[in-house]
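Fold it.
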Amino acid sequence: MAARRGDYDERYDDDYEAVRGARSARRRPPRTRPARERKKAPLLLRFLSWVGVILLCFVAGYLGTSWMMRFLSTRFLLKPEGNVENAQDLKEFEARSRERERALEKGASPLQGATVRLYHPEGGGLKEVAFHAVSSVQEENIRDSVLKLLSLSGPEVAGKNVELRHVFRKADTVFLDFSDSFASALSALGAQSSSLLITGIVRTLRDNFPPIDKVRFLINSRVTNSGAPVDLTVPWQLPN
């Protein structure tokens, strides 16, 4: 039986689809291989990098803190009286010294001063008296106060012409450097009166010149008793 022009065989359609699928499979690009992982830097290099970062942070923090402390010290904080740090401070210090000398020559006190409570031995105890200190430097006020206290402590001390050669402070301890006559004055007083005099000096300095809490007594810049009836080789401190 003759086939009509519009008819077609389904087998040809199936063969066409099979051939088309095979060609598409041949043209499909191959799958890409996964990229290899990047190699890590050597351990030593990573260690040096971290050390460099830490050092950089440390240096930046140190420099920043130093700059901030200098800024606060010059702008907001008060410097100790008489402290000379640069040429400007030196000029101001010299100007104040000249003003003080001119005022002393005129017989007037250049400073307002402060009242110091002295405790000197009298009648087997300590008597409190007021003393007007005129200097703005703490060490000078300490020197004047101690010498005034000694002059009030009886002829055994006042008659020895005791010299307080140097006064210097470190933290809460003040060092009083006396001449040999101080040990002689203590010997003339005896052990009990000498201990009372030392106690009066310590209490005077503790109550009037904070943060002083301990007193060291030197003889000619040396730690020695020099015949004194009390122990001058140890710091003296009042019980709390």
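The longest helix spans residues 43-75.
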